[in-house]
Amino acid sequence: MSDPIDGAWNDIGEGCHAYIQRDGGWGWSNAGLIVGDGASLLVDTLFDNRLTAAMLQAAAPLTKQSPLGTVVNTHANGDHHFGNAVAAPHGGSVTVIASAACAEEMTEVGPEVLASLTADPTDVGDMFRALFGEFHFEEVELRLPDRTFSDRLELVVGGRQVSLVELGPAHTQGDVVVHVPDAATVFTGDLLFNGGTPIVWAGPLSNWVAACDAIIALAPEVVVPGHGPLATLDAVRDAREYLLWVESSATQAHAAGIDPWDAAQQLAGELSGTSGSWDQRGEFGRLAANVEAVYLELDPSAQRSDLVTLFRHMATLEGNLFT
Ligand SMILES: [Zn+2]
Measured in angstroms, how far is the CA atom of residue 193 from the centroid of ligand 1? Predict the structure, then answer.
């Protein structure tokens, strides 16, 4: 069993709860729980079986009268679905729902990829172990959604309305937010890293900005991010500003003929001048991936760096050299 200090359930009122893990850094994702009359819905599972089991055990008093019937995966990154087989065992009564685009993307970076990168005996393994060495990928069995949708899906969970709204592609191909109107709460998945830095795996950035606008339009009082502490819309507005800054800065660098990695290194020096002090945020080196995402939009024939190169760039920007 994982150490209970990894995460804890926070009561956010109106039968909604948020499980917040550590500082929300790489892999330390959040989960959510919406408790209705006689049924509950879980937003996301965690990065491995042990963390997910600990999270579910801590949720047991909350779901005693309203058993878990549904798991929603907000997107395809493993830290939001690798625990599915624990929360929703095959042949059981719990239904897993995700967007069709998310379900398709879930098989791209499976647990075996991360298990092998963290087991690598070279400096590549050192880098991945520094980020992901505490997770048990070798125990994870991929458990794909039972039900998929596109655009929007309205659910009734124990008499309460829960709206699943697809706002991707942005962070990933099929990002979904979970809106609970009667609690004025939105679970954003990784469309919001509170205290951390957005990472654009899919893009376009303009669509992530539009996703921020869509979240703002829902006017929630409580925003549960995919990583980091509970938030309000101020954090969404902050992230929106950052994305706009990256988009315009990287577009200028591209027009000037600067190589994307050179551009990322130059722009990293300008982060301290941004309105949100983005040089102080967790994982600020993700700028390397974000600049590359803008370049890929501008030139669709360009190639995304491989995962190892991308992580090496991000680590280098943060001053961590593994070579
Ligand atoms: Zn995540």
Answer: 8
Closest CA to 54 of 95, 96, 22, 14: 22
pLDDT of residue 2: 45
Which residues, in sequence order, are CB contacts of 301 under 8 Å at separation 6+? none
- Domains in the chain: boundaries: 4-240
Q: Separation of 44 CA from ligand 1 center, angstroms?
A: 10
CA of 55 to the centre of ligand 1 (A): 16
pLDDT at 281: 94
pLDDT of residue 275: 85
Position 1 pLDDT exceeds 60: no
**How many Å lie between the centroid of ligand 1 and the Cα of residue 257?**
33
Structure tokens at 119: 């087991």
Pairing of strands 160-166, 222-227: unpaired
CATH 3.60.15.10 fits 4-240, yes or no: yes
The pLDDT tens digits for 34-69 are 999 999 999 999 999 999 999 999 999 999 999 999
DSSP labels, 93-140? SPEEEEEHHHHHHTTTT-HHHHHHHHH-SSHHHHHHHHHHTTS-GGG-
- Kindly give the distance from the C-alpha atom of residue 48 to the centroid of ligand 1, in angstroms, as a whole number: 13
